[in-house]
Amino acid sequence: MPPRDRMRNRAYNSGVDEKRYLASLARAFGGAGVAPAIPPAAPVPLGAGEEVPTAYGPCLALVSAHPARLAFPDRSLSTEAVAQAFSLLFGIGPVREGGLRAAGARTFADLAAHPRYGPQARGWLSALARGDLALLHDGISRRFSPSHDLLLHLLAFADREDLVFLDIETLGLSSLPAFLIGIGRLNGDGIEVRQYLARTLGEEPAILSALREELPPQPIVISYNGKAYDWNHLRGRCAYHGLGPLPEPVHLDLLFFARRRWGGELHDCSLGAVERAVLGVERELDVPGEYVPALYENYLRTGSAASLLPVIAHNREDVLTLTRLLSVLLDRVTRPG
Amino acid sequence: MERLISGQDVVVATGPSSGKTLAMALPIVAALAEDPTATALLLYPMKALAQDQLGKWTELARALGVEGRVDVYDGDTPSHRRPRLRAEGQILLTNPYALHQYLEWHHRWAPFFKGVRYVVVDEGHWYRGVFGSGVALLMRRLGRVLARYGADPTYAVASATTGDASLLGERLLGRPVAVVDRDGSPQGARTWWAWDPDLDPERSPFVQAVDLCRFLVRQGSQTLAFLPSRRMAEALAQAVKERLPEGATPDSGSSSAVASYRAGYRPEERRELERGLREGTLRLVASTCALELGVDVGGLDAVVLVGYPGSVASVRQQAGRAGRSGRDALVVYLPQENPLDRYFLRRPRELAEGKVEVPVLNPRHKELAVRHLLCAAAEFPLRRDELPLLGAEEEDATSLEKAGLLAAIPNGWSYAGRVRPAEAVSLNALTARQVQILVAGEVLETWDEHRARREAFPGAVFLHQGEAFRVRSLDLEPGIAVAEPSTDGLTTKALTLEEARIERAPSGAASDLGLGTVSIRETIPAYKVLDRGRVVDVRPLDLPPVEFTSEGVWLTWGRDGSTSRSGSQYRDLTLATPSPGGLHGAEHALVALVPLIALCEPGDVGGVSSVHHPDTGRPTVLVYDAFPGGIGIAPLLYARVRDWVARTVDLLSSCPCQEGCPRCVLSPRCGSGNQPMDKGAAWALLAAWLAAHDG
Ligand SMILES: [Zn+2]
Ligand SMILES: [Zn+2]
């Protein structure tokens, strides 16, 4: 018979004390381990951050301004480009398009009186005249692939303030918390990057809430793989915290354009690879994406920003790269011919 | 079924194939036909079963004019079909394993979840033990997620007859339920025989079973025999074949009309078998318990039960295969050599009509509740007021916060771990640490570490769906046991030495009876190798002891054999003061009959006896739940202690042996070689305890 005191003080599991039990849970579920929680108010030298209040408590916003050169397509040229795309009309395939062109039709305006395609053509013309971005985006996405140049032409109809360059950092794939949301907004001839940071995981609802307050009613989201990942992830996290749905954006996922444009030469179309090959940018000391969760956790455990600063820089660079990449992609569609 | 329509949660408890599915499905499908925005979620314990039932639901939905889709949605559903099913599905069939994964993606399920008006849990009796407790917690998570989408569904549990259907429903769903108890299947009379193999000591019980089956087939009865393992099923089929003439007419039985059946057959093979039985070309099928569920064989002339299948509920399921409408049928029960089997030989009426065990499940199990709490936290942030619903307390949440698995947010906690909890939590395991049983590199089963340490020691033979496998090695650190198919027919039994200390017992309880938290230390010093039940070898083991905390029930006696309340008139019953042999015998017999009271396997409980237990200070027999934390067995034994002890007294007084035998007090698992042992004293102690306790 084992001594009485050894048999006692035992948690639920086979002969483990509470600490070991919690540690085993932390192992199984990947928790940060038994470590003192970091109070949000602790002085963390994170750089020039400002605390922003939200309906879900405060979080930290890191704001920086950068130059950005982005020439948007010319509206009349883009209107022309869209109006020439006969295959946007339901019922028109290559054969029929050939027939219509042979008969002298050049743009939707020439089809406006067509007995069969007239109503559709008039609808497109009116949307173009109004610059109804959501409708145009919807119509083009239905007929064309998400990497079609016409989608870039849409920016001719956009308000520059509605553009949201987006990149987020999370604790992992699938449904795990996000802790850093980086967004870039154009202003004047530069770009302002705002990064909302959750200083504890408890601040996740606050950074989501800050993003929602920041988003224009009809955002144009520019991301890299954001359709599958970033935006999707944010949508899931908002649902998780019961924040209500995010607005349905016009979403230009530059991954699709990059694949179409450079996929032949580059077998790796990751943002880093495209950045190096296309933009000629070589980052000093960048953080490989797979280390990001561990670095954030280290920050949670130690309270020291040392491991977090590279992640913040990495996220900011990603947002800026989106603007540069978009600029290169737009060069082609803005250049006539 | 009016209750179902009016929105009351029900348990429909009926005999096998009595149309419980139809009775339940009809009002549900009718309601969905009227309201195309309403949906129903149907849970089946296994994938195959959902597939089996899909046809019936589709047919009914079509007949009643349901507009939405009716389909199975589980791990096998191709991903391109999923969004559409979530958007347009009106009746979806799935299983708990799949649902456990889907809850976290609730926002994708919003269209379906918003509309859920019915949740059906079919084969409710299947949800017991560790799995049942996990599913009970899953049902609480489901209810919580549905509530966030504004759905407040009516629940219907369909179950084979169980001991206490309302208790099962309540534990499973976490809310009170109404019981609809009826048996609507058209059946002829059934005659039950209990066959005592001792009456013919010249022939082994197995040979007697073979002769019995051959006799039944020869005289024209279509027969189904249930055996404990695939090997025995195949051996019986083979032996009967050899004794039947070739090419005789089917009715009189020819060797080609005999088949065996086990789990894991492909659907085509099952259909083939079902057809053979229906059309009468098959005259005898020898099966493992696999035929219990989901195979529609129609009614047979005779069912032979070789050995007690472990529960009266199973007996009813198996016997239910006998008898088609308007024709009489025969059920023969042929026991093997152990106390439970023996008990029913004397009381076949209990098999046919007696009470059925209550399935044990324990949604309050601390460790399970904590793990499902993490799953729930990953579905929606936890609010403080939701903790009791999930079987947890504030203390649990704060420890999890300390461990970095929860993060405090305004009004509660969000999940902060690094892995999806649904991936880390298995519905089948009690503890977080798991052991995979590998056969030829493939995972055959996943056990929790506790079970692996007790049952997967090197050399152990275990059954997987009636097939035997032998463990070659067990490595707890990566959590892997390597096993191989075993064809030599040998089985093993671990010998167990147990120690038990009482940690906490509610005060004020009678001193001759207790229920409380116990610390257990089990050592497996050796294991026996058996060939057809005969011990051919005993091999020593050198394993560290298994220690855990659980729940236990204990009986005590006064030093002179009296119980606390017994007057002197019972003292003469005790023959002597409580002797080690008497207490030991009482312990073995009580442990052996636990499955009569609480639906569980014989190895799910252990026992300890002592003439002076340090924690009671009295002669004591203690029976404990062998699952860490307790799976709900001990409270049930405590609640039905009189019934339990009375049946044990009955077993001891009716066994024809003198000194004690494997049919009463001798346990094949006893670590001290069944020494000391005194059957007479055991009987007297229990009878005295009962008399005192009744008085
Ligand atoms: Zn006996
Ligand atoms: Zn013993």
What does this structure look like?
Chain A has two domains: 50-72 and 158-332, Ribonuclease H-like superfamily/Ribonuclease H (Nucleotidyltransferase, domain 5, 2-Layer Sandwich); 75-132, DNA polymerase, domain 1 (Orthogonal Bundle), CATH 1.10.150. Chain A contains 14 helices and seven strands. Chain A has helices at residues 4-7, 18-29, 75-83, 94-102, 108-111, 118-130, 133-143, 149-153, 204-214, 230-240, 254-262, 271-279, 292-302, 309-334; strands at 49-52, 59-67, 163-170, 178-187, 190-197, 220-223, 250-253. Chain A has a seven-stranded mixed sheet with strand order 1-2-5-4-3-6-7. In chain A, helix 10 links the parallel strand 6 (220-223) and strand 7 (250-253). Chain B folds into five domains: 2-180, P-loop containing nucleotide triphosphate hydrolases (Rossmann fold), CATH 3.40.50; 190-359, Rossmann fold (3-Layer(aba) Sandwich), CATH 3.40.50; 377-418, no CATH class; 434-488, no CATH class; 493-694, no CATH class. In chain B, the strands form six sheets. A seven-stranded parallel sheet of chain B has the order 3-4-2-5-6-1-7, sandwiched between helices. In chain B, a hairpin with an 8-residue loop joins strand 23 and strand 24. In chain B, helix 2 crosses helix 3, helix 9 packs across helix 10 and helix 22 runs antiparallel to helix 23 (679-694). Residues 564-576 of chain B have low confidence and may be disordered. Chains A and B meet through helix 2, helix 10 and helix 13 of A and helix 15, helix 16, strand 16, helix 18 and strand 23 of B. Residues 584, 588, 667, 670, 672, 674 of chain B line the site of one zinc ion.
